[in-house]
Amino acid sequence: MFLRELYESVRQRLDAVARVVSAGDDRAVTAVARSEVPHLIDAVRTLMAGHEPNEIGECPACSRTLRRWTKPWRRPTSPCTVYLAARRALFDETDEPRHALH
Questions:
Q1: Which of 12, 24, 30, 74 has its CB 3.0 to 4.6 Å from that of 20, i.e. a possible disulfide?
Q2: Which residues neighbour 67 within 8 Å (Cβ) at sequence distance 6 or greater?
Q3: What are the residues whose beta carbons fall under 8 Å from the beta carbon of 17, sequence distance 6 or more?
Q4: Is the distance from CB of 79 to CB of 58 less than 8 angstroms?
Q5: Gap between the Cα atoms of 21 and 32, Å rounded
Q6: Which pLDDT tens digit goes with each residue over 67-84?
């Protein structure tokens, strides 16, 4: 499968599910939920599996392991982008800063 076809097929499937969930009747939404949610969960878990933290808590895919030799004492400067994106989506979080006064 060519890359463009791969990307388009995934986007089209997600768009189709989103359309039914946002505009479908209750029966259609229930049917889509039963058939598609297990696949979506598997897809997210598969993506996250490639980003599991290593023994020092860094994501091997996102960390700067190639530069580790210059600063072996360096702590991770940011969380794994895949786990961060998953958390934001699952918990409906945004990038907006949160202030104590809000």
A1: 24
A2: none
A3: 32, 36, 40
A4: no
A5: 8
A6: 555 555 555 557 888 999
Residue 61 CB contacts under 8 Å (≥ 6 apart), including other chains:
50, 51, 80, 82
Cα 82 to Cα 2: distance, rounded to the nearest angstrom: 24
Q: 32 with 20: CB under 8 angstroms?
A: yes
CA–CA distance, 78 with 97 (Å, rounded to integer) = 16
Q: Which pLDDT tens digit goes with each residue over 12-51?
A: 999 999 999 999 999 999 999 999 999 999 999 999 999 9
Nearest to 40 by CA among 22, 14, 16: 14
